[in-house]
Task: inverse folding
């Protein structure tokens, strides 16, 4: 048995509708004799987690004892444009991506294939064969194949990625070509935000820019936490360190705000 011909306001593939609370219809295909629908439940969610729990954050109709499958009025949160919704097709074990006007965009094998928490900058992570991950865009196009054992959200045009076959457990950053822009050399790393990311390389925490260059490095010297800039000059603490290890330390010029405070 399959649920086909999903329709929104009479349309199977509407380019757009001007109704925020549309009517929904479907056709059930089955080879069973003398079969008829006894009840339905509609769950609409913006996240896969909601579907996994059978609780839609847009709408959960609950079990409705009814043979009706035409013009079921949507009774959930009013819909906005330019968003995507993921439905679970339990019968066929698939994930179905649609827009909020009811147009089916694409289908994926498996009920929990789309990693909705990673949706960002027009793409979302999906799980392919072998529990490896790639990117699909809002049009349903697989733009990065499922090659990565770990793939984070796209932030500032870069995504945290790990490919065990190539680099073991080390993390790097790819762009939407699927190629590493920043080589995998980090034992731990976070997503980019406002042009920088926090990473751990060779046991030390540092901030890097979108080229992978160090902009700030955190270490310990003279029993204190210190911060070095990209040239290896001390920026923190502002006071001169006095232990022997700091004898040859170079100091970055104090920022104007610090000079103003001292004066």
Result:
């Amino acid at each position: 048995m399959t649920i086909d011909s999903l329709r929104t306001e009479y349309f199977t593939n509407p380019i757009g509708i001007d109704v925020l609370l549309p009517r929904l219809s479907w056709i059930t295909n089955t080879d069973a004799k003398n079969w008829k629908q006894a009840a339905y439940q509609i769950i609409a969610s913006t996240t896969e987690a909601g579907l996994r729990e059978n609780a839609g954050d847009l709408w959960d109709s609950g079990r409705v004892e009814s043979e009706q499958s035409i013009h079921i009025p949507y009774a959930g949160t009013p819909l906005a444009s330019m968003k995507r919704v993921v439905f679970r097709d339990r019968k066929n074990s698939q994930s179905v991506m649609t827009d909020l006007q009811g147009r089916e965009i694409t289908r994926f094998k498996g009920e929990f294939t789309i990693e909705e928490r990673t949706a960002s900058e027009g793409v979302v992570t999906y799980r392919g064969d072998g529990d490896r991950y790639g990117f699909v865009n809002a049009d349903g196009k697989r733009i990065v194949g499922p090659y990565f054992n770990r793939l984070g959200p796209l932030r500032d045009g870069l995504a945290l990625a790990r490919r065990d076959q190539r680099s073991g457990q080390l993390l790097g950053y790819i762009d939407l070509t699927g190629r590493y822009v920043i080589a995998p050399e980090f034992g731990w790393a976070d997503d980019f935000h406002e042009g920088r990311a926090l990473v751990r390389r060779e046991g030390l925490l540092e901030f890097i820019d979108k080229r992978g260059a160090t902009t700030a490095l955190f270490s310990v010297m003279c029993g204190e936490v210190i911060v070095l800039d990209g040239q290896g000059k001390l920026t923190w603490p502002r006071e001169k360190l006095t232990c022997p290890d700091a004898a040859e330390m170079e100091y970055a010029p104090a920022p104007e705000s610090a000079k103003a405070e001292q004066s």
Summary: The longest helix spans residues 256-262. The two ends are 79 Å apart (CA to CA).
